[in-house]
Amino acid sequence: MRDKSEWNQKFCIVTGAASGIGETTFRMLLDLGASVLGLDRNEPREILKNKKFKAQAHFRKCDLSDPDQILDVFEEFKDSELKALFNVAALPSNGLSISNLSVQEWDQILNVNLRAVFLTSKYSLPLFKNNNGGCIVNVSSVHAFASMRNHSAYAASKGGVNSLTAQLALELNPLNIRVVGVAPGSIKTPMTTKDFENDKLQLEKLGFPTDGLGIGHVGEPDEIAEVLLWSASSAASFVNGTVITADAGLLARLTFE
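RESULT FIELD:
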């Protein structure tokens, strides 16, 4: 949703702002004139050093597995008028079977991918009230609907995001806050591949075409960021409590294995 009047001088928060879909969403909002607070363990250095965004781009280092750090950030910005919260941050699957997955590894993924969504949504309420409402957009995954072996914690966390999205929509409707989920397929981010050119063959073997055309092909971060911004915009005012799938048709395919 590239309508600058929708976002100009509006305040938004993006988690996972240092890479992938989060970084792209951060940059896209800044390009549209929004004032954006990015949260991540790592700095989005290219964005922060861009003089064009000096007055708009805000960043706080935040470990989203730590409830106290999340609370501190939202307390700092409690007087802001929040238009949209984009919960993008997530940890990837560690590829372990459930028999080899430790409690600590399970908790690490669930704490970032699900509990942090609960906490950011909870702590954002005073900021949304300052704005007389707004929208929360939660990034889910196709793994919430259909997964692969050895992704139990990740898939469970994203299934939880879907359920939490519906629940929050019910609870926050009286506050004029919409809540929408977006479930991407395979996207060219560090979570999917750190070296796309060298990983093409492996991605193809897993059933993710790299030609930009095939069913379930690997997409670009901006293709998902566009859906996130549209979901939070006034153009999507009738969309609430549901999860939008953006996966190049991946879930339409019966199986690949």
